[in-house]
């Protein structure tokens, strides 16, 4: 897909990886629909992209809400007249051990802690993919969807909720690639390792240090390196159903 003038939606486009993707795609002259919970962050990203001369619209929407996602995607289709791409990037962390025993006291991961991550990181991806794919079929019978999974999909201690959601995203990337190929819609994913963003900055310093030492390339990835992979998937018409792993060699 030639990216110039195409309409691409980025969820969680207000900050972090989503912002880096927005700026990277703006440099390729893409028209952007940025979706996030945080209007201030959306405005900052939109201003940075508009400074590159592209059309940007922002949408306040919780990707975990069926009603909000349905309304927002319909609004984007009306505002732009087409939807060529979607990046399912919005995500949250609510880490904790499933069971922890300290000083004889036992604590457990709460159901709310489990459910909030499943709702945003898995159900949100399902809802956005469903609504956007339906519009792509209606509007032009073509498109590309990029799901942001994570290296944690293999199973990370303290991330029962997050690992389950990201593994689910990777599995459904294959499901949707197979279901939607007949409409010329490609679905693929990126599984980042540890990338320099606020999400990683919220980790405990000793855990972060341990992680960096374990990366064969001995550094975190940059948001631009992830954005580059997202653009690669959007542009490459023969890439579908696979996950690009960008982790500095962590899983070698
Ligand atoms: P971040 O916290 O910096 O940004 C996430 C964005 O998503 C924020 O702007 C937030 O407001 C938005 N968001 C959160 N919940 C939302 C909701 N319910 N509806 C709409 N928007 C919502 O995170 P990040 O580090 O940029 O991560 C982006 C994606 O990459 C996530 O899916 C994350 O799981 C994944 N990821 C990140 C890393 C990393 O190292 N940073 C590694 C692997 C995977």
TrEMBL record:
Q: Name one Pfam family in it.
A: adh_short
Name all Ketoreductase domain ranges.
Answer: 6-197
The record's listing under InterPro entries reads: KR_dom, NAD(P)-bd_dom_sf, SDR_fam
Gene3D superfamilies cross-referenced by the UniProt entry: NAD(P)-binding Rossmann-like Domain (3.40.50.720)
Q: Which NCBIfam families match?
A: PRK08217.1
The protein's matches in PANTHER family, at most eight in alphabetical order, are given as: BLL7886 PROTEIN, SHORT-CHAIN DEHYDROGENASES/REDUCTASES FAMILY MEMBER
The similarity comment for this entry is: Belongs to the short-chain dehydrogenases/reductases (SDR) family.
What is the name listed in the Swiss-Prot or TrEMBL entry for this protein?
Short chain dehydrogenase
What organism is the protein native to?
A: Phytopseudomonas dryadis
């Amino acid at each position: 897909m030639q990216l110039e003038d195409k309409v691409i939606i980025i969820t969680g486009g207000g900050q972090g990886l989503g912002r880096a993707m927005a700026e990277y795609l703006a440099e390729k002259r893409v028209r952007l629909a940025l979706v996030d919970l945080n209007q201030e962050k959306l405005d900052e990203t939109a201003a940075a992209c508009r400074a590159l001369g592209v059309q940007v619209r922002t949408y306040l929407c919780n990707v975990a809400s069926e009603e909000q996602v349905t309304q927002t995607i319909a609004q984007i289709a009306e505002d732009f007249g087409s939807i060529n791409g979607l990046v399912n990037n919005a995500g949250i962390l609510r880490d904790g051990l499933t069971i922890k025993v300290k000083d004889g006291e036992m604590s457990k991961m709460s159901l709310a802690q489990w459910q909030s991550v499943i709702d945003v990181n898995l159900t949100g991806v399902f809802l956005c993919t469903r609504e956007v794919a339906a519009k792509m079929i209606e509007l032009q019978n073509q498109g590309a969807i990029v799901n942001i999974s994570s290296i944690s999909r293999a199973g990370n201690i303290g991330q029962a909720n997050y690992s389950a959601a990201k593994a689910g995203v990777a599995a459904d990337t294959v499901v949707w690639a197979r279901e939607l190929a007949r409409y010329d819609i490609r679905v693929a994913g990126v599984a980042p390792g540890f990338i320099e963003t606020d999400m990683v900055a919220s980790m405990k310093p000793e855990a972060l240090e341990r992680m960096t030492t374990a990366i064969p390339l001995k550094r975190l990835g940059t948001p631009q390196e992830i954005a580059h992979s997202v653009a690669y998937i959007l542009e490459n018409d023969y890439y579908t159903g696979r996950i690009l792993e960008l982790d500095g060699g962590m899983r070698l």
